[in-house]
Structure formats: structure tokens, C-alpha cells
Amino acid sequence: QPYFERYKDAIRLGVVPGIFTDEPNVAPRDFPGRSLPWTPMLPHIFKKRYGYRIEDRLPELFYDVGEYRRTRIHYWSLIGELFSINYSKRLFDWCEKHGLLYTGHYLCEEEMWKSIPRNGDVMAHYEYMHIPGYDHLGRHLLPSIGYRQVSSVAHQMNRKRVLCEIFGTSGWDTKLEDYKWMVDWNLVNGINFFNPHLVLYSLRGCRKRDYPPSLFKHQPWWKYHRVLADYIAGVSYILTLGKYLADVGVLHPMSTGWMKYAVMDHLKVVELDKAFQEFAERLMKAQVHFDFLSEGMLKKYGKIENSHLKLGEMKYSTVIIPPFIENVLPSTLKILRKFAKSGGRLIIVGSTPRYVEGEESEISIENAELIPITQLEKVLKDLSPIEINGTGCEDVYTHLREFNGVRLCFITNLSKEAEARMQITLKGWKAVSLWDINRRSRYKVTYKRSDEDVVLNLVLEPLASTLLVEESVEYYPPLPEIKPVSEVSDWKVEILDYNALPLDFCRWSTDGKSWSEPTYVLSIQEDLEKENYEGPIYLRYEFRSDIDGTAMVAYEDSGSPDVYVNGEKVKEVPFKWIDPVYKVCEFKLKKGKNTVEIKAHFKPPKKPKTLLFVKDGMEIETIYILGDFTVDFEDKKPYISGPKKTPIPGDITSQGYPFYAGLIRYTSTFRVEEGGTYLLKVDRYNGVAMGVMVNGVYAGVAAWPPRVIDISTHIKKGVNTLTLELATSLRNLYGPHHTAGIGPSVGPTSFLELSSRRVPPTKVRWVDEYLLVPVGFEGKVVLLKEIH
Asked: Looking at the domain assignment, is residue 623 inside a domain?
């Protein structure tokens, strides 16, 4: 309400369309997963609902004793209901009243062993969101069940947009092709609204380590961000049109999860999660288009209509009970029996569930098909509206929609290595055209009719995607044949920005007399905060240079610092570097040992025992030496080794630029002897994005496979100049530099020195050397020509 009062004019104008909730949950903070959510009213509500006292059954929630199956189902279903009604529905109703959209995501939405103690029943919340949402963390593809839980309810409740907070914890070196890879996985799972994490107003202090990357102007590749934004906008729009074509409903195992979830032993639910994930993946790989059926939603909204199970806006002619479902609720059993009796196809895989609301029962459903797991693939082939055969197709996925009577099929190859050479059968289609998403072009394709189906051949490179549309348009040009003309070689390489030497160790003192040994800067910060120290701080950074010259030092303006280099106080120069938080001073670099001393006033940046930052707090950070020089290593320590030099094509981290963050230019020439449509195909590179210029004119970005740019309007007969601009990341500059075994997710603890400092402890280990990622381009570019 206070936000509404303050911003009501902006809300009424549509400038602020909605409110985002981030990771609400009911798990006690200090002991998540080892305690029970509770309220003073819970025992009364429970007794009124179920007729017995939950206080008498508490051991059954922790251990497999007594009537634990039934008790757990009652307890956790009630927790989910109360949380969704008293939190989500209240916010949903408030937003409805005030003209706002309610969106966001809940904590630990995906695996049941995590979501049960935090949300009870996470799918129950999505009904009460105008834009249901999910959270994709890390540079990897999460199991499909989390996305499909939220998209299923969105389809059923007729919510056109399905949100995902995405890219958080992916790390500074995430490439445009990585972003697209993750987006495409979301798209095939029903997500069509992307909320990037995160945009930092400042990189001051710990913010640069706060689950990077930050998608903002401090990135060396920021000017190329639009190609990603345009791709996301275009495909999201298309996959919002019309309706998702899912004819199959898969019963969700949440009540089985409740039954198995013991506070002191999560292993049974972990195994259930694994089986659930594998089953969903089998359906996706078989190109079965499906939604999950929440038992709670079935009870509220499930109906039988013309031999279909109708759940909200969706109708399913087939319902599958997976083999790992051991329990169903009485309301679920009732509607499934009606569905099968009406002529709907009910498939029970493996064996019939053994329990009804936690009580063992002989369950029989007339007309249901009981199939062994060994026959599942045959059944899935029959259920799939799309059949894909060929080589390299293991990671090909599809999303099928219908808009104004026209079917649309988004298809993506999520393999990073394998080219998919496919024969695709589109069942029931009358025609097909291809929409090239990257080039924004539409083409006629060669296909044949087989019975009532359309069959075509299609090749997708690794990480490539396209759109098939059920239409036959004669004026579309045919999909052209592409032939190589020549390979571009003999590259001139230029480093366009200053090199950097990060100094992340320093000696420190509180009196300027007694000094510590060289200490990792973040460890100093932690120790001072732990002691709640406030007072003078002296920092001494030391580095070696093998050359004399001029250089600059970049430091964060925190604690009102005075800066001295080699004993002389230095003054700020008007040079802007990466982010306004940095002040830059020029100094005389000398051969041998150089020293940077910072004198400042230290005050803890946060209020004690809180996450609340104070305005005048200080954060001790890495400083950076900038200039036209090269950097090498000796005894695992970096030093300035010589003047700026020109690298050759390949990895620049071993050529004097291990920490470089900026742009690299590659220049060469090629010849064109005759007119036509010419393309450039750029090979893989180690960087975030690659801009392409021909004869000084911008032609496009080779962002992701097939990395093909149409240069026809920029070329001339004879010799042409090709310029490639590789935009690097901030990874080698900001790290994490000293922690091995991090995996696909990067957060604040990824940068800490000792395992004991990490909460919780992880397998990440400290190393003294600087861990880097490759940066550069080998130089393989091929000139292509379209043959029509």
C-alpha cells in the first residue's frame, strides 16, 4: 500500500504495470528443511478440517511411525493451502483492486524435497498470479519440471504470459549464445516472458560478486546486447500467440511427495524427484506436448467434457499416471474414473497407485490402460504430434501452438556440439513454411505429404533454432542452397582498450606502523566487519614491473581515501573506466617494485547482524593497474612484463593479456568477383559477442550458431575489408580467480578464501594461482554465397 500511495500516478499511467514477489516461503529461516512451518491457528484449523489433533501426531511428520502417510498428506496439503490463500491470493486480490499485475516466483520451486517444506504445494500459488513465474539460476539447463509446473497452471488458468527470472549466478563470462541456449530451453517448456537478473546501478564493493552477471552498460559487450533482447522479444511474442497445443495431461506426484516427506529424511523424496525428472524428460524427447495436472487444481476445476478432461482452459484427451505415483487423493480418483468411463484415454504406467489419501487401498479404474514401462516409448510415439528421426537429434525439443487456426512449431537444437540432421513428421499438417528467426526471413521449404501428415528434412546446427508454420505461401522465396566461396585469413589483431593488472592481495594496518603479511582483500574485509572495527585503515598493494613508463591506478572511492604510489600522492584524472565507482589516477611506473598505499577511514558497510548497508561504509577491494603493457606470471603472481604488443589470433590470456576486459579488433580482406547474395560465417570464439563490419559499415552480430551474417548490401566487386570486433567479458578481470570447482553457478561465496567462510560449506577449494577462461578468436571465417 505505501508503494501504491507513492507511485499511484505512475501505476495509473501504466509506467509501473505490476509488483514482483521474490522467493516467499514458509520455512523457518534458521532451520529450513529440518523444521516445520507453524502458526498459532494451525492446530485449530487442522482439527476442524481433519477431526484429530496434529499435536498428537508430530512424530509422524519427522519419522515413519504410526499413520504417517495420511498425517503428512493432511499436514502439507493444509500448509500449501493456507500459504497460497493467505499470501498469494491476498496479494493477487489487492493487485486486482489496484490495477496491478501480481508476478514473481517462490523459493525452491522445482524439486519436491525442497519445495514441500517451503511452499507446501507450489502449484497452488500460480493460480493466484496474473503472470506466474519461475527462477532459472546458473549457466545450465534446469530440470523441466519446475518450468512446466508454472506453465501448466498458466495454460489452465489462461495466463498468456509466463515469467522466468533468468541469468542470475551464470557468471561474468556468460556468452550471448549461452543466454540464448537458456532462453530456448525456457521457451520449449512454456516460458515466454523473461526477467533478466540483474542490472546493477553500481559495481561498488560486494555488488560485483552478487550473483553475476550484471546486464548493463559496464559490460564490454553492452552495445551488442540488443541482438539478444530483440531475439527474446520476437520469439516470446510469437510463443504468446494463440494457445499451447497439449493433448496430454500428466498427473503430478505432489501427494506422493507429501506422503514420503519426513523432516529427518528427505532421501525418498529426492529419489521421487529424480524419477519425476527422468519421466518428464522422456516425454519431451519423444516430442509429447503435455501439462502437469495438480491434484488440488483438479479438485477445484476438473470437469469431464466430450471424453476430455477439462481443467480450466485446457482439454486433455489422454491422461498419464506415471509409475512413481503411489498415492492419489479421493477427489483425483473420482474424476479419473469419470474420465476413463467417458471414453478418455487413461494410461497407468507400471502399476496402479497403492494409496488413497495415505491409506492402502485396492484401486481399480474401469477402462484404464495398464502398460509396462517397457512399452512406454511405443505409447509416447503414438501420443506425439511431431516425430523426429535422424542423427544428432538427442537434444532437439519443440513447442507447439495454434493461432487463428494455424499451427506454429518452435524447434531448437540445444546440443552445444552435435549438428541435428532431421526428418520431421508434422502429424495432421497440410503444409509448412520456415521462418528464419535470426535473419527474420520466411521461406518455402520442400516437403512431401504422407497420409495426413507433412514430412520435411531440416538441419540445425548446435544451439540453433527456427520456426515451422503451417502455411503455404507461393511468394515466399525457396530456402536457398548455400555454398562456400573462400576462407578469410591473414588477420591483423588490435587490442583496443587498456590492459589491466588486478591487485587482490595487500598488507594492512590500523596504525600505519605494524603491517600484516599480504592478505586477500576480501578476508581483510570480513575480519574487520566481524570485529565491528571503525577507525583508520592503511592498505599497501605491491607489484613488480619490468618496464618504466606511465600507468594508471583504478580504485573504488570508498572510505574517503588518499592514494600514494611509490610514496607520492596521486591525483584523479578525467578517465572513465567500466563504472563510475572507480577513481583513476595517473602515476610514473618504475622498473622493479611498485607500491600503492591507500589511507582511509574504515566503517563497516552494513549495520551489525543485518544486510542493511549504510551510506558511508567502506569496502576493501581489489585495485587495478591500467595501461599499455603486458602481464605475465612468475611463481603464480602476475606482474607487468613489457610494453603493449600485438597478439596473434588465438587465446590472448597467454599472450600478455590474462585479465583483459574490452574489445579486440580483427581485420582482414576478401575478394568478391560477381554479384549475388553473400554471407559470412564466423567460427566459434572465446568471448561474449562478435560484431561484424564490412568496408567500415556495421553488418550485424555473430552472436550464436549458425553465426551467419548477410553482407550483400555492404560489399563491392574486388577487394573488401572485413573487421570483426570481439567483445570480451568481465570474468578474467573480476573472477572468481582463486576458487576451483565452482560449477555452473557463481555467487558471493565463490570469491571467498577459506571453505570455513562459505555458508554452507561446498566442494569449492582455494588455489593460489589465478584461474582464467580463454579469450580470443582463432580467425576462421568463411565467405558464403546463396544459390537460388
From this structure: yes
